[in-house]
Amino acid sequence: MLHDMGNRRRALSSLLGCLLLAVSPGCSTKNGDAHATALVQNPEGVGAVVEGQTVVLDAAPAVAQSFTISVPTSVAPFSPALVASTAVTLGPDTSVCGSVVSMGTCLLGYSAAPASQVSGNVWSNSPAVLSPLASIGGTLYARQATVAPGAMVGGTNTTPQFSPPATVTWNVTYPAGSGQNVWLAPTQTELLAPGLYGSVTTSVGSNLQLTAGTYYLSNLVVAPASTVTLDESTGPVIVYVTGALSLEANFVANGGSPSDFFIGYLGNLPIVLGAPGAPFAGAIVAPAASITFNAAPTPYQGYFAATNILLNPGAQVRYAEPLGLATAAASTVGLTACAQLLANTPPTAGNGTSGSGACQSSGQSSLPLTAQQQEAAYQAQVARYCSMPGVSQCIATLAGRAQADYSAAAFQMLNQTIPPGQYVSLSRDRSAKFYAAYKNPTQANALCTEPDSDGDWVPDPIDQCPNTPDLTPTDANGCPVASLTSPSASDIQALAGAYTVFINPLCNATPPPEIAGAAMYQTANPGDGLFIVAQRVTNQPAGCSVWYFFEFQEFSLNGTAIGTPFQVAYMDQEEVSPVAGINGLPSTLPPAAVIQFHASPNDPGTRGQLGSVPLSPTTIVRVRVRAINGAGQRGAWSEWKFPSEADCRALGITCAVR
């Protein structure tokens, strides 16, 4: 698919109601619990050394808890800068680069003081109040709003839909046992591996180093003038906290970006941001706590979801994609939903808005990305944050680039602008070069750092055949290679004659099709041809067409290949059930989990070739399958299978002669 990163929009989910709020003027406030009392009694902070002893306020480890984020149905899950389950309050001279959502039903849902600014849209499920000189660059969605003279709004919608909300929910389970407490003395540097800890506390001048992975903490108190270094070279840093949370340190990301850092807070103590040094950058989700932003030298960057959100005078917030949050949710929502979350997340840079405050440009500019580059960038995100956790950014980039090549070639093949053989050859070429780079860091680094002007996966310094046409399979020297045997042009044309929509808009922003295996069987009469069965693709939206590409190879009993591999393509709408209506055979319905096709010896092209293949004691035939959707998204090949009853049973069917 050619993915438009500027239009990745869809719906998300909701936090809670009028609960545990500390700053909303319209809801009751539940006072702090024993944690808050203990913090007052210990002003030096949780885990501080007092008279030679470590003071620890350990919250009970979570057994299994869940996070839920809610937004209006038409809002993309991770697209707003601020999401509150109760209320959002902007103080004087504050600004938000991005959109704001307030889902609560209290006295006020959104309150903007004089000279406060929001560049995007504002959604308020309760009355919204804009003071003089307050401004909203986008649309104000609120059933009831008070807009003072001098306030500016780009547009209004008095019939917004908040219910039912769109929700994203994921689970977190703390490892069993009790974690070790960690306290860093002044000037001390400590590297923590991902895992379970008790209280983690820093002192002035210390440096806490965290690597990619997930941390489960009781308390996290990082002091002013200390540093937290995030090594995100192989993925996001994810931190869960159940007790006290204080984020006054200077956070430094290496090998990643603010988008890769995520804190999930399971406690209910108010979170106050505003260190004297660099302001916090990352994503914070706190379903039972409030977040307050104090003024800082530069804007806060990230994504913030809580019960209540308050910007004190002078505070600025700039939206950044919560990519680490997508990784945290992926373990529960799965690859498909994770990819969808990324597809519906707008790019960070300015949110496509202009204006003052937190949205002021840095003055840097860049050329717009081509559709192919946009697709490669999106697929690289899917690899890094959803499907290939722990790989380097270089490998994720190459995975995205390979997927974009597969998609572009599929588009052109289905549109008859390149022959099927070129598509097959290109797929094998890109797969081979990607896995070679995956296994060889030196080769990967060359592909990621050196120019490749013709995009053939051979860096310019060693490319002996420069300027090869786009999507051309080449050898290791960059010179074109001959196409392999593949589905015939007549097969593809037959599909085109029956189904005219190949670039299916219903497949937009979808992940690659998933598939697990294939099998085939023959009736008692070889003249009936072959039946081919695959696990049905189920991770595509309704109406999104799917093509199943089967590859076959014949062997003699001594292992000698007979002929060359060939492919047969079927569209999902061509499935046969029951057994193709062949006279004398029972009408056996395959289970819904599989999809079945029929190849007759009388079919044209490679379908007829397949239908004529004998499944005999003297011939061995192996098969594998991959799927491509109507946006050109290519799934992975299944493993090779030989026709056997075991293969059929693995798919939940019986393939004995029927």
The parts where pLDDT drops under 50 for at least 5 residues are 1-62, 349-356, 362-366, 495-503, 580-586
> How many E strands?
36
Number of helices: 9
Estimate percent helicity. Answer: 10-25%
Assess the beta-strand content as a share of residues: 25-35%
Strand order of the largest sheet: 4-6-9-11-8-5-30-29
Mean pLDDT equals: 78
Distance between the termini: 40 Å
Tell me the structural class: alpha/beta
Q: What is the radius of gyration? A: 29 Å
Largest sheet: 8 strands, parallel, barrel
**How many individual domains?**
4
What sort of overall outline do the alpha carbons produce when their principal axes are compared?
elongated
Your description of this structure?
With 658 residues, the chain is α/β, with parallel strands linked by helices. It folds into 4 domains: 68-172 and 266-360, no CATH class; 179-261; 371-462, no CATH class; 502-650, Immunoglobulin-like (Sandwich), CATH 2.60.40. It contains 9 helices and 36 strands. The strands form 6 sheets. An 8-stranded parallel β-barrel has the order 4-6-9-11-8-5-30-29. A hairpin with a 7-residue loop joins strand 31 and strand 32 (530-535). The longest helix has 22 residues, at 393-414. The two termini are 40 Å apart. 51% of the residues are buried. Mean pLDDT is 78; it is low at 1-62, 349-356, 362-366, 495-503 and 580-586.
